[in-house]
Design goal:
Helix content: over 70%
Largest sheet: none
Shape: rod-shaped
Number of helices: 4
Number of strands: 0
Distance between the termini: 95 Å
Order of helices and strands: HHHH
Oligomer: single chain
Structural class: mainly alpha
Length: about 220
Amino acid sequence: MTDGLRQLFRRFREGMGELEEALLGDRLERALDQDIHTTDAALRDARANATAMKAKRIDMENRAQALRTQAKTAEDAITVLLARRRKTAAREQATALLELRARLAELDTQLQQAARDEATLQDLADRLDQQLRRLRHQVAALRASASIRRAQEAIARREQGETAHPEPAQAARKRAEKAGRTTGSHARRNATASHTSPSVEDPVDALLRSLMPSSPSNARKPK
């Protein structure tokens, strides 16, 4: 595999990794958005039901208070009738008072249940509100992380673009061969120059050469 194909394959794998990461982030964000939509709808329903239950409880409390007032009035009336020895009328009032108290007891039971339902709905709304806040925080963190990752990738690509590209292998080989030829030619020239230049003569040889007579005739004949 050539260097170009290796670089292309490496970039392809890096691109696939970034694509898978981006798709995973998109799927996660869509899932969180769906959870936010569902939780927000449930929160609105819970708050609406809690508000309706509160209104019902307040209405029941007002009716219960009205029945207590009627019961107190009936008790006072019965007391007056008994004081006047009007037993028949007092008995009739007493029968009506018992019915009133039964209605009040039933209303009190319903009122207690309404208060419990209201508290349950309000607690559900509070929990849903907390869950909705967490989901929105997760989405914000996910988007912030994706933005930081994209910024880092952009910076890395920009820095990679500003950095000088490495010399192709073929060009490097040609440059090395050219440098080798140049070095070889320089070496050959140096070798030739060394070969053609006169060598330094040995001092002894130089002395002998200087003492050597120029011709045999110049030599003195022995006496």
